[in-house]
Amino acid sequence: MANNKHLTTDNRYTIQAMLNDKASFKAIADALDKDPSTISKEIRSHLVFRKIGGMHLHFNACVHRSNCTKSHLCSPCHAARAYKLCKRCNMCNAFCKDFQKEICSKLLKPPYVCNGCGNRNLCSLEKRFYYAADAQKEYELVLSESRSGISLSETEVAHLEEIISPLIRKKQSPHHICVTNKDSIMVSERTIYRLIDSRILSAMNMDLPRKVRFSARKNKVHFKIDKACRIGRTFDCFNTYLSEHPDVPIVQLDSVEGKKGGKVLLTIHFLKAELMLAFLREHNDSQSVIDIFERLYLELRPDRFMALFKVCLADNGSEFSNPRAIEYDRQDNLRTHIFYCDPSAPYQKGSAERNHEFIRMFIPKGTDLARYTQDDINLMMDHINSYTRESLGDKSPYEAFSFLYGQKSLDLLECHLIPPQEVTLNASIFHKEVLS
Hints:
Blueprint: H1 9-20, H2 25-32, H3 36-45, E1 48-50, H4 92-95, E2 127-129, H5 132-146, H6 154-169, H7 174-180, H8 182-185, H9 189-197, H10 235-244, E3 250-257, E4 264-270, E5 275-281, H11 286-300, H12 302-308, E6 311-314, H13 323-327, E7 337-340, H14 350-362, H15 374-385, H16 397-405, H17 407-412, H18 432-435
Parallel strand pairs: 3-6, 6-7
Antiparallel strand pairs: 1-2, 3-4, 4-5
């Protein structure tokens, strides 16, 4: 038996083919020279969920579907055609307050999937499949994530912060801290320097008496706080979430750089209204993003924040690599959901990318953002958000946002409407000393 060997693509296609033929885990394991538990873990780790019906049946996983007589749950009707009974619509589960999910009892025992089930064309419940191509892609993603970034979880970082930062502020060196606390911190001296360089710890280089004498490296390396932050938050997961919550508002997150290594902007783009906020940050790090979300959470209050920030879609930058600190408040209450675009796929949040073209009319690429203040950035965004868009029925993002979410939210976000005749899309709106 081949122990300690990763499954190959061919192995996975064999598993899929044998599942389709209703083979047992033992038979599959014998064919691949593996342990049956390996096959079981492989299948359960890479389940693909599909909300599809059967022959002439729409998806419906409610336990009451057989005897349900409800109609007109949503008004206006969201279906492509008007149904007399809502149970015949594949969206009734999302809108019915009495929905109770039913799971097929066969999925609770081996083989845990519907691949070889002969009754799946007669079933309207949610189905589970094992697909070799999807399993291989997911395996490669996990393998890639496990080999990148700092191998520390958020809990471990918090533990190190509690011990290391106070000692560094007492002018203790990382070497002294490692020697005297080796049973508590369990990391190397070099790792401490890397955590400080990446601003993952609150202690800074200026707190190290000798470190500040050396020149910084030309190529600044960004580290991810949680090496597996994208697992369960991929763009496919994002699309799956939207299929289950079709009317949820989407917020797109991104960063706009000025001079390399200098200040950066965090942009928050509300997709439905096309309104964008921009926040000036000293460094393009994770903590600065977390601080902005904490401030918005306090200023907007939890109920308003959660209504606006139901789902956030970000790119793969290191500044968004601590999703849990954004998703949960300090009392560990869920306040939003973070998902990530695929690598090198900025088109997946194209609305925010297009809106950045307006920012570049004011701040050309490579411009040092140190010359601007947050008030300057707010003024710039007021002009951009007051500019009418054909896609919004010749309304401005400001007006669309006010209609969708209320004027009170705009006031709390410190957004102001610029009269149409005064809207200016160039740097002349800034103070003269900024332009010089």
